[in-house]
Amino acid sequence: GARLAMQLSLLRAAVLARMGLPSTDARLDSATLNRCVNDALHAIEVIDDWAWLEAAPADIATVSGTSEYTPTAGWMRTIDLRVNGRVPLARRDIEDVDLLLGASGDPVFYAIFNEKIVLAPVPNSVLTIKHRYIKTEPDLSADADTPLLPAAWNSALIVLAACYGHRILNQLAEAKVCAEDFAEWEARLKARAPRASSSEGGGVAQG
To answer: What is the pTM of this model?
Structure first.
């Protein structure tokens, strides 16, 4: 049958077991293990635009004369932006979009800059723009919390979290073994895990 999502308390125990440590080992307390698990989740989330991290589209309501908009909390990467269901806005570098900020009208282009969405031309009316995006994995904190990462990839998460745990304990040889194991899991993820539906308009936050 399908694997069940592991709660954070079980993930902590699995990480200790992968490290060959007893659950009573005081060197890695619950808070430290939680950090290892969350750091591993965030490392996996940036490998690709995973299907399980595709958020429900969010509405951006434009304001006449305003070109910059803050994405929804938890946003990591943009898949596309559409005005009234039309074709996606074309993504451009911020330098190209800056050249168009003197013009006004319905947006045709966008850029991502300083974690803002910059539209060009500058909207001159109230429009609803559908924002499809990839979200971040929420940090796990309560014992019963479960990741968005599908349970089929629990082992990848556990081995990477164990790698971080070994590094904290300065067990560099053991950390190297875990890192090599995770590299194999990463290859499987890239080969088999489902991606989000994509368009040519995707983009990452840029500083």
So the answer is: 0.86
